[in-house]
Structures are given as structure tokens and as C-alpha cells.
Amino acid sequence: MTPTLHPTALRRATLALAAAAALGLSFTLSACGDRAQAQAAAPAAHATPVGVVVMAPESIDITTELSGRTTSPLVADIRPQVGGLIQSRRFVEGAHVKAGDLLYQIDPASYQASYDSAAAALAKARAVLEADQLTAQRQAALARIQATPQQTLEDAQSAVKQAQADVATAQAAVDTARINLQRTRITSPISGLIDVSAVTPGALVTAEQTTALTTVRQIDPIQVDITQSSAELLRLKADLASGKLKQVGEDSVAVKLILEDGSTYSRTAKLRFAGVSVNTSTGAITLRAVVPNPEGLLMPGMYVRAVLPAAEAAQALLVPQQAVSRNRDGSASVLLVDGDNKVVQRAIVASRQVGNRWLVDSGLKAGERVIVERAGRRCAELLDVGRAQYILTNAVDSWNAVQLQHQHSREWRC
């Protein structure tokens, strides 16, 4: 059975529901109004300080940082020129040796015997020559008084010439034996650091074997082979031809070397050679520099970075790296404060790094204000509040005065 309400009770319930609805609506309207007022007052209550740098042209030296490796200007693989047993080793592995220092001694006994035999044969040939010369002289004296046939004189003179040839042959044999005997002493042809030994005393070696006994490398001075892409070289030449950059010195260009640990080598290298062809497999050319290495700090095969002066830019605009944003496609952009004191985004072309700044090729002009610092907001958030007005106040404290030099740093507050 469905319950029923008295008409008076039904009217009272309806009035109570209406009152409750009106009260809830008033609370909702009041809360919305407070929130709107808070949102309207928020921009005025919270200022966003941002630091800017005023673009000013300056003259800078354009440098190119390229990778390279150290190489020895002279390398000598030590191989025996005669065969035999290694009698002794006369050097310390890894030490510095001079040209002419004895490295190995091969057993010289058999070569000494060969030399002695050749020397004896030479002495015998010389004795025969002397006897034939005396015989020829006597036959000549008899021939003048016609006491001997002419044929006998001619035979004596021919014997002298044959003896002279025998002496020359014996002399050549002596020279060969002496050279082979000297080659039992294996000496260093150059000065430099000597590598580990591949053989020990008692090992049997052969003449002109393919395996080197050890290797000597010159390290003072030492060479640095540097590679530069042909595309970068073409871009540099185009900038020089257009007048955007000015050529620096061509002869004995100074090169600064940065070592693998990030330190700078104390001595300056000199560029001595630039490649005349492009490597078809790498698309690069080879540059060669020479640097003194008296302490032996640089070793062959070390990786280094070479900083070469390329050109000079007289009216360069440099923007701090922290002010530049990169998109996924690699394009660069910065945030500016325009003439109406509003934040705008500008695409720029900055393809060369100079220290901790980017060299701007296009997109910025002298006098424009680039945002480099902001308090608690990212670039995208600053664009969202781009409608705010900015008022000039003080300088940004995060930039060192030495770094800024000709630039003027300001702080803006919304």
C-alpha cells in the first residue's frame, strides 16, 4: 500500500527543499566569485623576474676544434740483416735510445771466420799480383833488347791484369764479410723511445725476417694528424669569400692542444701541412701539426683535440648558450623582450660555438634584448604569460661581469 502525505506536510517539505537549494547556490556563487577574484589578483601579486642580455656586436677570433691523434714523425722497425743466435740484448724496454746505440748482439763467430778467410784470400791475390808485375817488368826489359819473344811479354802483361782483377774480387769479398760481421751488432737507426723486445737472448733470427725484434719511435718533436670535414672547410671558405669572416695568418699557424683528460698542453703546436685531397671513405682532409715534446708527455696514438684559428669576425653577435632552445629538428630559437615589453619567440641560426656562447648567423640584431634568466619559469611558461607588462629594474647577478664585457644585462619583472 503506497503511503500518502497530508497536503500541509507536502507544502512544508517543498519549501524546505527550495530553501536548501537557494542556500547551496549562494555558497557556490560566493566561492566562484572568490576564485575569480583570486585569479584576477594573482598576476599582480606574483612578479616573474627574468634576466636579459642586450645584443652588442664585438670582434672575435673564430676557432675550429677538430679531433686528431699523435703520431711519430720517424718509426723504425728493428729487423736483423744477418741470421744467427741472439747473444745479448743491450737496452732497457721503454727507455730512450740514441741513434747508433747497440740494441742486440748476434753471435759473430762464423762471420768473423768468414772475414778472416776473405782477408787471407785478398793477401794471397796481392802476392800473386806482385809476382806477376815483377815478371812483366823483366820480360819488358828483355823485349827491348829482343832477347825474348813478343808473345812472352804479352803473356806476362796479361797475367798482371788478371792478378789485379783477382785482387779486386778478393777486396770485395773482404768488404762483404766485414759488413756482415758489423751487422751482427744491431744498432738503432734513429733516436726515440724503444718498444718491448719480441725476442730474448738465445733466440734464432734470420736475415730480413718479417717479425720485427722491436720498434723505435721518435717522440720529440711529435706530430698531430688532424681531420677536418670537407663540408666544414667549404663553409669556412664561403664565409671568407663573402666577407663575413676575415682570414688570419697562413704561415706557421699556432695550434692549441686539449688532452684526453680535458687539460691544455703547455706547448703550442705549429701547423705544417694541409691535405691536398679528400679521403673518399671519410669525406675529410688531413692536417698535420708538429709540437715539441721534450718531457715525453705525448705518446704516439693519443687522442687530442686541436683548436685552430680559422678567421676573424668583426661584427659578431654572441648569445649565451642558456638562452638558446633547440627543437627536435635541431633549429634554434630564443625569447626576446620586444619594444612593447612583451615576451616573443624568435627563430635564429646559430651553427658555431664560441666558448659558452653561440655565434648568431642570422635572426638577431644589435640592441635586441634576449632573455637568459628567469625565476622559476620555463620558456614555454613565459610565453603563456606574454600578455604581462615588464618594468626595467636591476642587472642579473648570475652572469659574471668579465663574461658580459660589452653586453648590458637587465632584470625584468612582470
Describe, in plain words, how this protein is organized in 3D.
- By secondary structure, the chain is of the alpha+beta class.
- 32% of the residues lie in helices and 31% in strands.
- The chain has six helices and 25 strands.
- It has helices spanning 7-45, 109-144, 150-182, 230-242, 379-384, 401-404; strands at residues 49-54, 58-71, 75-78, 84-89, 96-97, 102-106, 185-187, 192-194, 204-205, 214-217, 222-229, 246-247, 254-258, 269-274, 284-291, 303-316, 318-320, 325-326, 332-337, 343-348, 352-354, 357-359, 369-374, 391-392, 408-413.
- The strands form five sheets. Strands 1, 18, 19, 20, 23, 24 and 25 form a seven-stranded antiparallel beta sheet that branches.
- Strand 19 and strand 20 form a beta hairpin.
- Helix 2 runs antiparallel to helix 3.
- It starts with 6 loop residues before the first helix and ends with a strand.
- 21% of the residues are buried.
- The model is unreliable at 1-36, 38-47 and 375-414 (pLDDT under 50).
Note the main attributes of this structure:
alpha+beta, 7-stranded antiparallel β-sheet, 414 residues
Helicity level, as a percent range?
A: 25-40%
Number of H/I helices: 6
Strand content: 25-35%
Strand pairing plus helix content: what structural class? alpha+beta
What integer value in Å does the Rg equal? 46 Å
- What is the residue-mean pLDDT, rounded to a whole number? 78
Compute the separation of the termini in Å. 71 Å
Form type: elongated
How many strands in all?
A: 25
The biggest beta sheet is recorded as:
7 strands, antiparallel
| Unreliable spans | 1-36, 38-47, 375-414
